[in-house]
Amino acid sequence: MTTAPHTAQDLERLAEQAGRDLEEASALDVLRWAADTFGSRFCVTSSMEDAVVAHLAARAMPGVDVVFLDTGYHFPETIGTRDAVAAVMDVNVITLTPRQTVAEQDAQYGPKLHDRDPDRCCALRKVAPLEEGLRGYDAWATGLRRDESPTRAGTPVVGWDARRAKVKISPIARWTQEDVEAYVAEQGVLTNPLLTDGYASVGCAPCTRRVLEGEDARSGRWAGLGKTECGIHL
Ligand code: SF4
């Protein structure tokens, strides 16, 4: 479905209203609202940790755009999950890449920028390409959940992304890890094989480690660097 772009003012109003109306709605109903309201100007972003939100969105809007950021630092398992999602699901996978390859970045900033200045590395390889890739959309969905970490505890189901002037939708914000696992099992949803190999949250290989017993899901990301988010969701 092709939909005309909304003005930023309209979008902000829509986000505020839907944030109130859809707080208790099911994830599928939230995505049906997004599909009806934004049509082709709506996309899902996926880190390819699992395909839960992409699966839900495809039920609400077959052929929905699923945006994946290929930082050049992903585990092969993550790229494999992306390829499997593109092959078997009724979605349109769009891969975004940073302006520089890893080799070009190394030449300009020195090797392993992720160890020395992860905020800059994420800004170059995640935040900037997503910023550009989302330009043609009025609304985007994420897989953020409140139970993932203290920094995500206040995630709205529908909110206003003031930085990008877009509606930001987190349809499974209220889900728990158990809810995700139940949906994956019931619907046979694709997941990243690393989730059964000790990883609870999957990001770039140099910045992701397995989690220990009792740690929250995102504690394996940028471990020891005092960093909890890449900057996309701040
Ligand atoms: Fe760079 Fe690590 Fe951020 Fe990936 S997660 S963009 S490797 S700092």
Automatic annotation (TrEMBL):
It catalyses: [thioredoxin]-disulfide + sulfite + AMP + 2 H(+) = adenosine 5'-phosphosulfate + [thioredoxin]-dithiol. GO terms for molecular function: 4 iron, 4 sulfur cluster binding; adenylyl-sulfate reductase (thioredoxin) activity; metal ion binding; phosphoadenylyl-sulfate reductase (thioredoxin) activity. GO terms for cellular component: cytoplasm. The active site is at C230 (nucleophile). Its EC number is 1.8.4.10. Pathway: Sulfur metabolism; hydrogen sulfide biosynthesis; sulfite from sulfate. Gene3D superfamilies: HUPs. GO terms for biological process: hydrogen sulfide biosynthetic process; sulfate assimilation, phosphoadenylyl sulfate reduction by phosphoadenylyl-sulfate reductase (thioredoxin). Residues 47-209 form the Phosphoadenosine phosphosulphate reductase domain. Catalyzes the formation of sulfite from adenosine 5'-phosphosulfate (APS) using thioredoxin as an electron donor. Belongs to the PAPS reductase family. CysH subfamily. This is Adenosine 5'-phosphosulfate reductase.
